[in-house]
Structures are given as C-alpha cells and as structure tokens.
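Recap from last week: sequence in, structure out.
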Amino acid sequence: MTNLFFAINFIVSFFSDIVLNILSRQSYSPNIIKSLKPYFEKKNFIITGIYAGLTVLFALIVNSIVSHYLLEFDYPNTNNQLFKYIMIAIPIGYFFDVAIYKYKIFGNLLDSYYKLAGAGLWGMIAYIFSILISFYIMKIMLSK
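Predicted structure tokens:
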C-alpha cells in the first residue's frame, strides 16, 4: 500500500504542477502564481510535472522513514495517523523547499517566484496538499 500512496502523490503533484503552469499564464492569477511563468516557459510541462512528482516522492521517502521509526507506520491509514504524518511533513516540506531555493535545484528560473514568495512556506503547503488529496483519493479507491 505504501507504493499506492506514493504513486497517487506523484500523480497529484504532477497534475497540480500542470494546473500551476496554466494558471501562471493567466492575467487574473495572483502575482505569486504569475511569478512561476519564467520557469514554465523554459521547460516542457511534462518535465516540470515529473520534477514536481519526484520532489514529492523524495520528501515522502524521508517522511515515511521518520514516521516508521517514530510512529511505527509508513504512511497514514487513519485520520489520526494522517494528522501525525502531516506533523512530520511540515518541517520536511519546509526544508525541501528551502533546499530547492538555496541550492538552485531547478536553476535560476524560479528566482522571481522565491523573491516574491520566499522559500519554505509555499513549498511546504504544496507538499501537505499532495499528502491530503492523496490520502483521501486512496481512501476512496480502497473503499470500493
């Protein structure tokens, strides 16, 4: 089941990235989303989606290892476990986003975004979003 949770997270983050790509080109989008446009203009949308999915997977691996040793479960199965898993995910998501910014993992194309948004918070929120959506998608899938 861990593989299913990881796969769903990859898919959720892949499609979330595509949505951000589309929104970054819209005149009505907030400036923070528009600031992603230089990154998306220079890269293929499939590639950026894969990058987003892989970033979430790497963070999930760390999250699941910590959860395994601290809480004795690898991924959340209940709402209570989800809450605990997210408590671990908050600093991990924040750290990953800061690392992406500091080490320019995706190059300089995100400089305008990080100048406006700062590093840490929004990457962490995107990571938590992926976990939440994936948890409930998995619950729906397993209930059928």
